[in-house]
């Protein structure tokens, strides 16, 4: 026996209950209220079930309740049925996409005489996770904190002495992108190279794209983009700006932001002055360091007086001068 609820137009999530002759109708192995449709299912109608039934619809956000019209249940003497095998009237969809970390509830209920028992199984033979809970005389299987290992083909088996019936459905796992590695602000000298890498997990596997100052960034000239990596060679001042790595799949999109600052500074000796006098023994070796602050890397020239020094067997020139 199925009593239809027919909820009114609404927004937000609803919960359902039934009133039997002005008292709450309790649920057991004979009675089941679907929280998907609101319908009341009675596996095997008995004389004690005769009376008026009213569907109660509650908005879970506002807690506002609406009562449907009373539905009379009359037991006809010529309508008494004998024993028959289970007929599953409430079953979950063939495919149930489930997000990582959420709670999934599967409904299953069967009519039959004798009253069928409900058993839940995994089709692959693995045990159902211990965290799973069964409610309403096994009519609901609830799996909290859904993870990849919970995905698979599930079976609801309804059985009595006259036979059994099976409903199956595939629980599939999906996850919005989640950052494993973000990009960070970076300061580089002009003409140096920049390498950024971002990584995200998710299911399906996320794809990546890059933005600069909110505009799409594509591979060209000095810029190479390969999925979650961005490589800029010989950086110039025009490369400075805000960059974003975008990871997305069909379930969500996430952004990681970082600023690229390009430093260009002329040679500055204020913090690394050369010694005015360096003492050295005749025939000894001397090292004179030259370390100005500069970006990009400067070209060094050494002079003795007004004469430019050239490398030879006595002079070695770079950022320091060696004389032996």
UniProtKB/TrEMBL annotation:
One of its GO terms (cellular component) is axon. InterPro entries: Ig-like_dom, Ig-like_dom_sf, Ig-like_fold, Ig_I-set, Ig_sub, Ig_sub2. This is Ig-like domain-containing protein. GO terms for molecular function: cell-cell adhesion mediator activity. It is found in: Cell membrane. Residues 1-68, 86-172, 177-261 form the Ig-like domain. It comes from Gulo gulo (Wolverine). SMART domains: IG, IGc2.
């Amino acid at each position: 026996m199925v009593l239809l609820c027919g909820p009114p137009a609404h927004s937000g999530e609803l919960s359902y209950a039934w009133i039997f002759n002005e008292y709450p109708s309790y649920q057991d192995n004979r009675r089941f209220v679907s929280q998907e449709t609101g319908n009341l299912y009675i596996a095997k109608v008995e004389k004690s079930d005769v009376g008026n039934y009213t569907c109660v619809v509650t908005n879970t956000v506002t807690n506002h309740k609406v009562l449907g019209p009373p539905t009379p249940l009359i037991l006809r003497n010529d309508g008494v049925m004998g024993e028959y095998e289970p007929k599953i009237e409430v079953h979950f969809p063939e495919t149930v996409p489930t997000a990582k970390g959420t709670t999934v509830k599967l409904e299953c209920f069967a009519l039959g005489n004798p009253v069928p028992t409900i058993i839940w199984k995994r089709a692959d033979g693995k045990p159902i996770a211990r965290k799973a809970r069964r409610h309403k005389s096994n009519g609901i299987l609830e799996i909290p904190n859904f993870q990849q290992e919970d995905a698979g083909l599930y079976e609801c088996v309804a059985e009595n002495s006259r036979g059994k019936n099976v409903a199956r459905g595939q629980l599939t796992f999906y996850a919005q992108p989640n950052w494993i590695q973000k990009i960070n602000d970076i300061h580089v000298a002009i003409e140096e190279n920049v390498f950024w890498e971002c990584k995200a997990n998710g299911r399906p596997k996320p794809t990546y794209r890059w933005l600069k100052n909110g505009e799409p960034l594509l591979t060209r000239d000095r810029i190479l983009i390969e999925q979650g990596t961005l490589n800029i060679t010989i950086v110039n001042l025009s490369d400075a700006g805000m960059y974003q790595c975008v990871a997305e799949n069909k379930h969500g999109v996430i952004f990681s932001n970082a600023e690229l600052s390009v430093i260009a500074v002329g040679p500055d000796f204020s913090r690394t002055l050369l010694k005015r006098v360096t003492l050295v023994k005749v025939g000894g070796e001397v090292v004179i360091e030259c370390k100005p602050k500069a970006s990009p890397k400067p070209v060094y020239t050494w002079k003795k007086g007004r004469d430019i020094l050239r490398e030879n067997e006595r002079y070695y020139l770079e950022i320091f001068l060696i004389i032996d």
